[in-house]
Design goal:
Blueprint lengths: L2 E3 L5 E2 L2 E5 H10 L7 E5 L4 E10 L3 E11 L7 E7 L3 H14 L3 E6 L8 H5 L2 H14 L7 E2 L3 E2 H11 L2 E5 L8 H6 L6 E6 L7 H9 L3 E3 L8 H15 L9
Parallel strand pairs: 1-4, 7-8, 7-12, 8-9, 8-10, 11-12, 11-13
Antiparallel strand pairs: 2-3, 3-6, 4-5, 5-6
């Protein structure tokens, strides 16, 4: 069944009214008809099975027939602070990170980023939000991951410290502390901030600064992962450790 994230005001008293791009997709791309069912999500964590009652080119109406909690949300909150990458690589991280279960993305500008202009980066944020939305619908998420505007490295560290929980940086020069040992040393906190570098990684000065803000450096093993891979691998390991990758009971 097709799933659509909609504005909360699209659903009132059990009636659903969809306009614009969503209505166009339902009517002209998917060619759904009255009587067909879709899931509507208002980003509250609930999903509403909706029977379509009228399908026009740019306006679709329906009636909610069943409401329940969406089951695709993770049990821990992973915020991925990703060093800016080339456009297609960052889009890959946003798409796959959403599918895995990351709940927040914060692009960060670091010393080795190819792009170093915040204004140019933030012009792309609407396209990135569309990628996140489509991935969330496909992967049966109940909430849209938050996508923050790009920020500088020091501000990202301050934000991660303020969030509390566990603050981790995968770093290729860390040879003593593994991600596994860090995750198994104590009960996994609900909130985890994960800082991942751009192509070329973090500088030693950046790592020292992050440690001053409370970050722990960890190794992801003997192989060097690409910048667009490291955060996805680490997030998957965290979700596995939390038990989030177990099948749901029916």
């Amino acid at each position: 069944m097709h799933r659509f994230f909609v504005a909360p005001q699209s659903v009132e008293m059990g009636k659903v009214v969809l306009v614009g791009d969503i209505a166009h997709q339902i009517a002209n791309v998917l060619r759904l008809s009255p009587g067909d069912h879709i899931f509507v999500l208002d980003n509250s964590g609930w999903q509403m099975e909706t029977e379509l009652t009228d399908v026009q080119q740019y306006r679709v109406t329906g009636q909610v027939v069943r409401r329940g909690l969406a089951r695709g949300e993770p049990s821990i909150k992973i915020s991925l602070y990703q060093g800016m990458l080339r456009a297609n690589h960052l889009e890959f991280v946003l798409q796959k990170g959403t599918e895995i279960g990351v709940v927040e993305f914060v692009p960060i500008i670091t010393a080795r980023c190819v792009i170093a202009n915040l204004e140019d980066v933030n012009k792309k944020i609407e396209r990135w939000r569309r990628i996140v939305r489509e991935a969330a619908e496909q992967s049966r998420r109940g909430r849209l991951p938050n996508l923050e505007p790009a920020t500088m490295f020091m501000q990202a560290c301050e934000r991660a410290r303020h969030a509390g929980g566990l603050f981790l940086i995968p770093w290729e020069e860390e040879h003593e502390v593994s991600l596994k040992s860090m995750l198994s040393a104590s009960p996994l906190p609900f909130t985890i901030s994960l800082l991942v570098g751009p192509e070329g990684g973090f500088t030693e000065d950046e790592v020292r600064l992050a440690r001053a803000y409370g970050a722990h450096t960890v190794s992801l093993g003997p192989r060097i992962l690409r910048a667009e891979t490291a955060g996805l691998v680490a997030a998957t390991a965290m979700l596995y450790e939390s038990g989030d990758l177990l099948p749901l009971a029916e």
